[in-house]
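Supplementary Methods. Inverse-folding protocol.

Structures were first reduced to a discrete structure-token string of length 120. This string, shown here, constituted the complete conditioning input.
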């Protein structure tokens, strides 16, 4: 983790405060895609490229604003399943089609979490 105490920088939780990327899905998406150190992610084209610990972001309305994020916690028959806490979900299929938040406009953003690069 790095960037404290600036909430606009890095990905961190420290002393009762946190970065926006720690607490907001939309900010985490931009952090993962642009980070050059610490936690980094690479956007991939499909869910089939994801592994355990990778992240899926959901744009429920298809308006370009990320609304929700989940972590891949299992892969069953080649299909990533996720856990979430907004509506408690345990090994839910990644598409979220059974969610009350699902819309036909929903867009998905898939991120593979890369090796962590520690600052020097």
């Amino acid at each position: 983790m790095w960037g404290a105490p600036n909430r606009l920088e890095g990905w961190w939780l420290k002393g009762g405060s946190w970065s926006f990327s720690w607490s907001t899905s939309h900010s985490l998406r931009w952090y993962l895609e642009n980070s050059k150190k610490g936690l980094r992610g690479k956007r991939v084209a499909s869910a089939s490229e994801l592994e355990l610990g990778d992240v899926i972001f959901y744009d429920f309305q298809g308006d370009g604003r990320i609304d929700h994020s989940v972590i891949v916690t299992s892969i069953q028959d080649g299909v990533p399943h996720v856990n979430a806490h907004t509506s408690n979900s345990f090994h839910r299929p990644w598409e979220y089609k059974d969610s009350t938040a699902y819309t036909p406009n929903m867009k998905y953003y898939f991120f593979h979490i890369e090796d962590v690069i520690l600052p020097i």
